[in-house]
Amino acid sequence: MHIEKLEYLVEVAKTGSISKAAQNLHVTISAVSQSISSLEEEWGVTVLKRSRTGAVPTVEGAAIIKKAIELLQKYDELKEAAQGYSNTIQGRLRLATIPGPIFLLEQAVLDFKKQYPQVKIEIVEQGSQDIIDDILNDKIDLGFIILFKNRLVEHLGVDFERLLKVKMVAATSILSPLAYQKVITPKELKQQTVVLYNDDYVKWFMDDFQKKYGEVDIAYTTNNRALISRACMNHLAVTVGLNYSFITEPLFTDDDTVILNFDLPQTSPVYLGVIQQKDHTPSVISRHFLNRLKHDISDLQQLM
């Protein structure tokens, strides 16, 4: 019996489909089907009930699949222990992040790759819900999202670890009439032309802001940071974003930028954090990378 066959079996149980499992594992449908048939023949029991709509575990199969998951976890622990003795870490690290933190991850990824050159690293940038879905479907190892009061992830089968407490701020040019202020009120923001970065939390914040204080003159929302920078520098527009983003990837030079805190009632805390599958032992690669990232974040906190 090969470990790969157990991995195929568990993936089919997770997805409920041999074809989806084959797609996720990057193998052929026949390879998955034949592997499972081989296991059933070896064990003398039917573990999956196949139909046109998919594949579901039999009563006996459900108990066997549970044991298979436990065995695969133990096998991962065995590999990690062996790599520890050989002082070599190999494998892959799959990361997904909302747009903002990509610049925060950049240095950590490059440093990690230098230290562990045999680890293949994949990074995708996508929306928060897509990240949560990919974590649940084991398509990524670590996902970076913003957690706030309207997004509760604990009940979704993922664990959330806080990395950095953040807050919303406004930014504009030193030439703006707002340049001599330290804070901006809702009334003052409504009098400005606003340009926004296309981000889940920024969208939620501005929707909530407008419900409470009235409509804001939002010229446009874009993923083009240069476009936002030009609007602020050349047309004295105001942009809104999380405070760390103006440090990790400034829109303008320090001398040309004014950062304004919002004059708003006390709000619930907001955190940048990492999500992983609940009740799933993180790989040694994931643990090492998070330690590297936390070191970088501790340096960033001193600047905020």
UniProtKB/TrEMBL annotation:
The keyword Cytoplasm does not apply. Belongs to the LysR transcriptional regulatory family. SUPFAM superfamilies: Periplasmic binding protein-like II (SSF53850), Winged helix' DNA-binding domain (SSF46785). Signal peptide: none annotated. This is LysR family transcriptional regulator. InterPro entries: HTH-type_LysR_regulators, LysR_HTH_N, LysR_subst-bd, WH-like_DNA-bd_sf, WH_DNA-bd_sf. Gene3D superfamilies: 3.40.190.290, Winged helix-like DNA-binding domain superfamily/Winged helix DNA-binding domain. Coiled coil: none annotated. GO terms for cellular component: cytosol. It comes from the Bacteria. CDD domains: PBP2_LTTR_substrate. Residues 1-58 form the HTH lysR-type domain. Pfam families: HTH_1, LysR_substrate. It comes from Paenibacillus dendrobii. Keywords: DNA-binding, Transcription, Transcription regulation. GO terms for molecular function: DNA binding; DNA-binding transcription factor activity.
